[in-house]
Design brief:
The protein is α/β, with parallel strands linked by helices. The chain has 20 helices and 15 strands. The protein has three domains: 258 residues, Rossmann fold (3-Layer(aba) Sandwich); 37 residues; 87 residues, formyl-coa transferase, domain 3, CATH 3.30.1540.10. The protein is globular.
Length: 424
């Protein structure tokens, strides 16, 4: 059974994470995705190679695609792109704002050839504004969007990157796929293509939701003063810890006594609990047989110093309690009580996890050069148009002859392009 995007053709000009991830999601839905990269390979191919031109990062982001190495700065390379574009539905571009114009792959040029084209461009900061010309990677966006400072990870006085994943990049890849599929749906109604613009900064702000929401009735009393003090602190060269403390001290009284949404050390390991409703908090309090005045009186005044002191002691009591049993013992007890909980694990433990296996969250592939590999499977299930993994990531230039011969290029012409370094 074909996928939802079966029959759609995608031309992907991408590198690193956001756009490659987007292209991979579209490929899983059945689209034919042709990845255009420099004849020597995009940077992620070359990062920590374990065999020539193959890296873990590249393989993890480019499955299901075809490879077309092409020098798009050359006249010959641009000619091939313009020939291809006549039969392409979607273009994905992930370069600095000036690069598409220099390479003849900007929206105006390509939509002039194919008006039905859906053209998705990702930039770091958006097309307008004083930073629009700047390149940017996830670490820069984390810093400039507030994500990094809000994380409060500090080493030697310096704020640290959120390193478990490139949150801005991956979330933007999902947003790009969302925008592309919406634009294809609109094209089905109107017959017109369009330009879709994504930006790492926009996504990084979006995933912060409540932190990037200012409500006058709540924030007018503290926010202007905090921003004024923040500027003054930076002017005098205050440490990051001092600056972070400014925000903590300026914000409305924060909740104390958090025992319901956090991680705990157990007798042998660690676990997490997540109780965001009063009903769940009551279940956890009952399961632990603790006396928390808040579960009986949700309107309890937590600004009262005596209450705050009692809740601080409660935290210590619960932390000590969790250390008296193993993680497995606690999970059994909490599951029986209906309390959301789970063990703290490393991702490498999950390849053979029964839950991951049962739902097809991991897939096994055979790479032409690297051999057997396992990686995350499709992230969605669709009953009538299955989301399926088609193949591993392509070796560089694997599909050059197929794609160019489909445009009418003969073997001698293709070999000449190779000899000139236009393709591989």
């Amino acid at each position: 059974m074909p996928g939802a995007l079966d029959g759609y053709r995608v031309l992907e000009f991408s590198q690193i994470i956001a756009a490659p991830f987007c292209g991979m999601l579209l490929a899983d839905m059945g689209a034919e995705v042709i990845k255009v990269e420099p004849p020597d390979g995009e940077p992620w191919r070359l990062f920590a190679q374990f065999i020539p031109l193959e890296s873990r990062m590249f393989i993890s982001l480019n499955r299901g695609k075809k490879s077309l190495p092409l020098d798009i700065t050359s006249t010959e390379g641009q000619k091939i792109v313009h020939e291809l574009i006549r039969d392409i539905d979607v273009v994905i571009v992930n370069y600095r704002p000036d690069v598409p114009y220099r390479c003849g792959i900007d929206y105006e040029t390509l939509s002039g050839i194919n008006p039905r084209l859906v053209y998705c461009e990702n930039t770091a900061f958006g097309r307008q504004g004083p930073d629009s010309y700047r390149p940017g990677y996830d670490i820069i966006i984390q810093a400039m969007s507030g994500l990094m400072a809000s994380e409060n990870k500090v080493l030697n006085g310096v704020p640290q990157v959120i390193s478990a994943t490139a949150v801005g990049d991956f979330a933007t890849g999902i947003m790009m796929a969302y925008g592309i599929t919406a634009a294809l749906l609109a094209r089905g109604k109107t017959g017109k293509g369009q330009k879709v613009e994504a930006a790492l900064l926009a996504t990084a702000l979006a995933v912060q939701t409540s932190s990037f929401t200012s409500i006058d009735a709540v924030d007018a009393a503290w926010l202007p003063g905090f921003l004024e003090d923040l500027h003054a602190a930076r002017e005098r060269g205050a440490s990051f810890e001092e600056i972070a403390e400014l925000r903590t001290g300026a914000m409305p009284v924060q909740a104390v006594g958090n025992i319901y949404y956090r991680t705990y050390k157990t007798h042998d390991s660690y676990l997490a609990v997540g109780c965001l409703s009063l009903g769940l908090r009551r279940k956890m309090a009952a399961a632990l047989q603790i006396d928390d005045p808040r579960v009986h009186n949700p309107a309890l005044d937590v600004t009262d110093p005596a209450v705050r002191e009692r809740l601080a002691r409660l935290v210590e009591e619960v932390e000590a309690l969790f250390e008296t049993r193993t993680t497995a013992e606690w999970l059994k007890l909490l599951d029986a009580a209906g309390v959301p909980s789970g063990p703290v694990r490393f991702v490498q433990e999950l390849f053979d996890d029964p839950q991951v296996q049962a739902n097809g969250f991991v897939t096994e592939l055979e790479h032409p050069l690297a051999g057997r590999l396992r990686m995350v499977g499709p992230t969605l299930k669709m009953s009538e148009t299955p989301v399926e993994v088609k193949s591993a990531s392509p070796p560089l230039g694997q599909d050059t002859e197929e794609i160019l011969s489909g445009l009418g290029y003969g073997a001698e012409q293709i070999e000449e392009l190779r000899s000139k370094g236009i393709t591989r």
